[in-house]
Amino acid sequence: MRRALLVLAVPLLVAGCTSAPAAPAPPAPVASASAAPAVDYAAWAGGKSAPVADKLYPRRGNPGLDVLHYDLKLDWAPASKTLTGTATLRIRPTKDAAGLSLDFTALTVDKVTVDGVPATGAVAKEKLTVPVAVTADRPVTLVVDYHGTPKTVPMPSRRGDADEGLGLHVTKDGSLWAMQEPWGALTWYPANEHPSDEALYDIAVTVPKGWSAVASGTPAAGFRYSSKDPVATYLVTLAVGKFKKTTATGPHGLPLTYWTRPKVDDNLLTVLKKSPAAITWLEKKFGPYPFPTAGVVTVDSISGMETQQMITLGGKVTGKWNKEQAGNYESVLVHEYAHHWFGDSVTTRTWTDLWLNEGWTTYVEYLWQQERDGFSDADLERYLRQNDAKLRKKAGPPGKPNPAYFAESNVYLCPAAMLKELHDKLGDKAFFALARDWVQTQRNTHQDRASFIAFVNKKTGKEYGPLINKWLDSKTTPA
């Protein structure tokens, strides 16, 4: 998630539900336990996950379901601000259950089928419930037709961008854009809203002539996008507008696409065109870029997100565009691209360990600023420790986040300070070898504090658990 960073400045804080009509009595449960599924689900094996319940946000997600694949066919009508969708979900139940429950809100459900059999679906308290019995490890296909005008949901935070809300935003001119960390997919398709359940995606969007639709994934003709690497719901994006499309090539032929708003984002486009250099720098440190394509779409936000293969970047520039503004956005761009290694490819298992995503990318951003601007290790050490102390006092230790204050700056800067401490002890060669191996050998996996400590100890041959735990749990800056 975006941090509006000035060079060696404290990171800034940028970055009711509608229910369906009462459902009639449900049909008899689908007795799927006695026969193998009619569909071969092997094609979506890459979307297999081991979902867990979240201690910070237990209302979100369903650990009893593992969504393997989302196929979203969407139609957006800007004039009426109506989204019409068909979501086909290939789901592997992780346990026997009396029904399916997914996160969904504010849109009207028109039709539901399970394995081709008509079913009912009721939306209440931001959940879609389908009362059809399922059996552990026996996949089913859920299809939901729906329509309506998306509405955002509140963000559990006191960050500066919290007032924007989460999910799919509808603008006055009929444009769309999404920001959805820690959730928000539920505002435009039925989803299992938890980072531990990643899935493969196919997204196809129909829009009027003159409009463009942009989504996460590898682009194909006709505003179609596919993700062959698994994606967490918070890393999916959708934007519709009258965009200007600019193509470029990154290292080793990596296809890049920038979608910008004509005239509005002309200055910002000059920064986006530095993407090849940013990705090249990151590859030298952490190995090959983990996805087949990359790019950026600019939207009417003050925030930004590392959405997979297509960064969603807020283009609300305050004040006059100048060298300082450009430098700030360069830092943000590096931060978000770094997330494609740290967060997108290697994803935190629960929101308690958000520091594992943001600490790495914040430290990487500082290293990039250090090379660009030439400040010393001593300068960086002093800056980190001074601000670490302030943030721990204000927001607590990064390893014990407050659920009411999602993604405070303490989960960015404080673990970055821990990583600098580890860097200082290991030296450049060993530290960057560790970082590179972490993201390259753990690709498309979910990780947490325990697995990170185990990895560091195995890689270094030394016990670094006490150091890491101290920096994550201490109420004051460790000595």
How would you describe this structure to a colleague?
The chain is of the alpha+beta class and 479 residues long. Helices cover 27% and strands 25% of the residues. The chain has eight helices and 22 strands. It has an eight-stranded mixed beta sheet with strand order 5-4-8-2-1-11-14-13, with no helix packed on it. Strands 16-17-18-20-19 form a five-stranded mixed beta sheet, with helices on one face. A four-stranded antiparallel beta sheet has the order 9-10-15-12, with no helix packed on it. A hairpin with a 2-residue loop joins β6 and β7. α3 packs across α4, α4 crosses α6 and α6 crosses α7. The longest helix has 32 residues. The chain is globular. 48% of the residues are buried.
Provide a concise account of the structure shown:
The chain is an alpha+beta fold and 479 residues long.
Could you tell me the mean pLDDT?
A: 93
- What is the number of E strands? 22
Helix content: 25-40%
Structural shape: globular
Topology as a string of helices (H) and strands (E) = EEEEEEEEEEEEEEEEEHHEEEHEHHHEHH
Key terms:
alpha+beta, eight-stranded mixed sheet, five-stranded mixed sheet, 8 helices
What is the strand and helix layout of this fold?
Elements: E1 65-77, E2 82-93, E3 100-103, E4 108-114, E5 117-119, E6 122-124, E7 127-130, E8 140-148, E9 167-170, E10 176-179, E11 199-206, E12 212-215, E13 218-220, E14 224-231, E15 238-241, E16 244-249, E17 255-260, H1 266-272, H2 275-286, E18 294-299, E19 304-305, E20 311-314, H3 323-339, E21 346-348, H4 354-373, H5 377-395, H6 410-441, E22 445-447, H7 449-460, H8 465-473
Parallel strand pairs: 1-11, 17-18, 18-20, 21-22
Antiparallel strand pairs: 1-2, 2-8, 3-7, 4-5, 4-8, 6-7, 9-10, 10-15, 11-14, 12-15, 13-14, 16-17, 19-20
Helix pairs in contact: 1-3, 2-3, 3-4, 4-6, 5-6, 6-7, 6-8
